[in-house]
Amino acid sequence: MRLVVARCSVDYTGRLTAHLPLAPRLLIIKADGSVLVHSDGGSYKPLNWMSPPCTLTTSRRGDEEASEDPEGEWIEQWDVVHDKSGDRLRVRLHEVFEDSAHELGVDPGLQKDGVEAHLQALLAENIDTLGEGWSLVRREYFTAIGPVDILARDQSGGSVAIEIKRRGEIDGVEQLTRYLELMNRDPLLAPVRGVFAAQVIKPQARVLATDRGIDCVTLDYDALRGIDDAESRLF
To answer: Distance between CA atoms of 100 and 228, rounded to whole angstroms?
Structure first.
């Protein structure tokens, strides 16, 4: 990963045209080829970016180019072109404050908290609690944007992606929606339906999930562990 803090201007052309005037920004070039432009605000979202597959080329300023630039002299230009769409991101560096490269290696992935990890393991071991005839395909089914907690087959043999949370909120539904959109592009899996499972599901999350055709399931942690038999309760 390369991190560059520089005073720069940014222009994007493609499906839309966007311009970021000269200002100090953080530029990130990741090992997967993506390029991200960040400011000191705006939370985690970049101001502009280019996703892979893309090609990055750099060039130094020529005297004629410098005289034609209304924002003054620049020292280096990055041209990032998407290999499929042809969209272009042009970054002109006027002053570099920091430039460093770091080898991060293979990321071990997100480590879920104890309750979510245990819920995932317990539900995988007892997948038939979601329905008679259900079967487990695998836990942590990897996609290009991260692993979905469980991939299962229902009684009809259909693919089911299951996302598990301790507290089911809107962010979890959005996460599962992204997984489903990607997995349904795979002809070996499609059609894939979703199940959003949690110990507690917020009303807003349930409404959003229902609107998107995602089933909601409330998980009983103690019952899954075998400590509490839900069928034997009086109330």
So the answer is: 55
What pLDDT, in 10s, does the model give residues 183-205?
999 999 999 999 999 999 999 99
CB 108 within 8 A of CB 100: no
If you count DSSP H runs as helices and E runs as strands, how many of each does the chain have, helices first? 5, 12
Is the CA virtual torsion 123, 126, 129, 131 positive or negative? positive
HSE-CB for 11 with a 13 A CA cutoff: 7
The amino acid at residue 13 is: T
Q: Does this model's pTM top 0.85?
A: no
Residue whose pair of structure tokens reads 């060039």 in the numeric block: 59
d(CA 139, CA 74): 51
Which of the 8 DSSP states describes residue 145?
A: T
Residues 6+ apart with CB under 8 A from 125: none
Angstrom distances, CA of residue 124 to CA of 34, 84, 128, 149, 171:
35, 39, 9, 9, 23
Give the residue among 59, 36, 30 at the shortest CA–CA distance from 49. 36
